[in-house]
Amino acid sequence: MSSATKDLMELLHGTVAQELLDRIKAGDATAADFSNAIKFLKDNGIEAQMSKNPGVTSLAEQFPSFTDDDEHVAH
């Protein structure tokens, strides 16, 4: 890949990231925008670390914990 092509791809990558972030911050993001942002992060190896992100920790605490087999109901 030529240097110019690499530079163009890096610019496009940054522009996509900025556009998604701008939509989310402005409150204008659609469900598809959120889905695309999540996929963008995943495709680039970005993961949330609960210890560094109180929002993720708070969200995780709202889900039930299924540690005992007695809690599971067969369907």
Question: Can you give a write-up of this model?
Answer:
- It contains 3 helices and no strands.
- It has 75 residues and is mainly alpha-helical.
- The protein has one domain.
- α1 packs across α2.
- The mean pLDDT is 88.
- InterPro entries: DNA_matur_Phage_T7-like.
- Residues 56-75 are annotated as: Disordered.
Secondary structure elements and pairings:
Layout: H1 3-26, H2 31-43, H3 54-61
Helix pairs in contact: 1-2
Main β-sheet, in a few words? none
Radius of gyration: 19 Å
Given as residue ranges, the uncertain stretches (5+ residues, pLDDT < 50) are: none
The count of β-strands is 0
Residue share in helices? 55-70%
Q: What proportion strand?
A: under 5%
From the spread of the alpha carbons, the general shape counts as elongated
Question: How would you spell out the order of helices and strands?
Answer: HHH
Question: How many separate structural domains?
Answer: 1
Oligomer description: single chain
- Give the class from helix and strand content and strand pairing: mainly alpha
Question: Distance between the terminal alpha carbons, to the nearest Å?
Answer: 54 Å
The total count of helices amounts to 3
Region (Disordered): 56-75
Offer a quick outline of the entry:
The chain is an all-alpha fold and 75 residues long.
Which key features would you list for this structure?
mainly alpha; single chain; 75 residues; DNA_matur_Phage_T7-like; 60% helix; elongated
